[in-house]
Design goal:
Elements: H1 2-24, E1 31-32, E2 37-41, H2 50-63, E3 68-72, E4 84-86, H3 96-99, H4 101-109, E5 114-117, H5 121-130, E6 135-139, E7 147-148, E8 151-156, E9 176-180, H6 187-194, E10 200-212, E11 218-219, E12 229-233, H7 238-247, E13 254-257, H8 266-279, E14 283-287, H9 288-291, E15 305-314, H10 318-326, H11 333-336
C-alpha cells in the first residue's frame, strides 16, 4: 500500500507543479471573486486542523461585524457535484449527507453563517456576494488555483513525513504560514530562513474537554482518566486523535479505526456497540467530525457516548496579521468591478 500512496503523492505533486506554472505564465487565467477571499489550506493529504482554524476565524470575523460565508467543496456530500447553500434565515438543520461532514460540523458550531457548497467555488463566492456576504472563508483552498485569493493561509505539520499534495516549495506562494508546534528544535527558524518574506506563526491543538452526544456541556477530561474508554474515529490521521487523548491522560482500553469521512452504516454502529459491551467500557469517545454523523443513531442514544472538543492555540499576532492584510487597500478592487 505504501508504494502506491507514495506514487500517488508523487503524481499529485507533479500535476500541482504543472498547474501552478500554467497559472503563473497566464496559460490558464485566474478569476477574481466579487468579495475578499481568505483561503485556509495545506500541502498534505488529510487533516491539518483546517476546520478548527476556519471556525475560529469565522467567529472572530463575526465579532468584528463582518458577514463571512464559508466556501466549501462539501467533500463526499450530495451537493458536492452540483452545488447548494445553507442560509441561517432558513432556520432548519441541514442534512450532513447533503452538505458533507465538515461543513455540517461548522454549521453546528456557527449556525449564523451562510455555507456555499460545490466543486465550483467561484460560483459559490458569487452566490455569497449576491446574498450580501462581505468576505469568503474558503476551506481547503490552497490547490484551488482558478480563483485568485486575497489571503492564502497554509497550515503545515513538519513533525512527521506526511504524504504531500504539493512539495514544500509551494509554501512560498502562501501569504501566512501556520506551523504546528513540534518538539523538533529550530523548525520555525529554518522555515523563516527559507521563507523570510512570509510571516510564520506556530499553533498547537488542545482539548477543551469531552461533550456527551445530545448535550452541549463540556466535561473536563480529568473525569475520564480512571475510566475504561473505547475510542474510535474515521479521520485521515487517526494517530493524532489517540495522541491527543493520551495527552489528556485518557489511555483507551481499545481503539477502532475507520476510513476518513466514513459514513458509519449499521454494521459499523453494531461493531462499536459490540466492542463497548465486550470490554465493558465506561465511555465511548470519538472526534467531533465523527460524532455529527452518529448523533441521530438511536442505537447509541442511551450509551455513554462522547466526543472530544478541540481548539487551537495560535501564537499571538497571527490574527492581527490576518486583519491587517484583509483591511489593507484592496489590490483587486478594479478587477472585481
Amino acid at each position: 500500500m505504501k508504494p502506491i500512496l507514495s506514487f500517488l503523492s508523487l503524481f499529485y505533486r507533479l500535476v500541482s507543479k504543472i498547474m501552478r506554472i500554467m497559472y503563473e505564465k497566464n496559460i490558464k487565467k485566474r478569476i477574481f471573486a466579487p468579495i475578499p477571499v481568505i483561503s485556509i489550506g495545506n500541502i498534505t493529504f488529510g487533516g491539518s486542523e483546517k476546520t478548527p482554524l476556519s471556525i475560529k476565524l469565522i467567529k472572530i470575523l463575526l465579532k468584528k461585524n463582518r458577514k463571512p460565508a464559508l466556501i466549501s467543496r462539501g467533500y463526499k456530500g450530495k451537493w458536492e457535484k452540483f452545488g447548494g447553500k445553507v442560509l441561517p434565515q432558513n432556520n432548519h438543520m441541514p442534512d450532513w449527507k447533503k452538505i458533507g461532514d465538515e461543513p455540517y460540523m461548522m454549521f453546528k458550531n456557527i449556525p449564523e453563517i451562510g455555507i456555499f457548497l460545490g466543486k465550483n467555488r467561484i460560483s459559490s463566492c458569487i452566490n455569497a456576494y449576491k446574498k450580501g456576504y462581505d468576505v469568503a472563508v474558503m476551506d481547503d483552498g490552497f490547490q484551488y488555483l482558478s480563483l485568485k485569493k486575497d489571503l492564502e493561509i497554509v497550515l503545515h505539520d513538519v513533525s512527521k513525513k506526511a504524504l504531500l499534495r504539493e512539495s514544500e516549495s509551494a509554501l512560498k506562494k502562501a501569504h501566512l504560514i501556520l506551523l504546528k508546534k513540534t518538539h523538533l528544535k529550530n523548525k520555525k527558524v529554518q522555515f523563516k530562513s527559507r521563507l523570510s518574506h512570509i510571516p510564520i506563526y506556530e499553533y498547537q491543538v488542545f482539548s477543551k474537554g469531552l461533550v456527551k452526544i445530545g448535550d452541549s456541556q463540556v466535561i473536563a477530561s480529568e473525569k475520564f482518566k480512571q475510566n475504561k474508554v473505547l475510542a474510535f474515529c474515521g479521520i485521515a490521521h487517526p494517530h493524532r486523535f489517540v495522541k491527543t487523548l493520551k495527552e489528556e491522560g485518557i489511555r483507551p482500553a481499545a481503539f477502532l479505526e475507520f476510513p476518513d469521512h466514513y459514513e458509519y452504516p449499521l454494521s459499523a454502529v453494531k461493531k462499536i456497540i459490540n466492542k463497548h459491551k465486550s470490554i465493558n467500557s465506561d465511555a465511548i469517545v470519538t472526534t467531533e467530525k465523527d460524532a455529527v454523523k452518529l448523533e441521530k443513531k438511536n442505537q447509541l442514544k442511551d450509551l455513554p457516548f462522547y466526543y472530544l472538543k478541540i481548539d487551537l492555540y495560535i501564537e499571538p499576532g497571527f490574527f492581527e496579521e490576518v486583519f491587517s492584510k484583509l483591511n489593507s487597500p484592496d489590490p483587486f478592487i478594479k478587477k472585481r468591478q
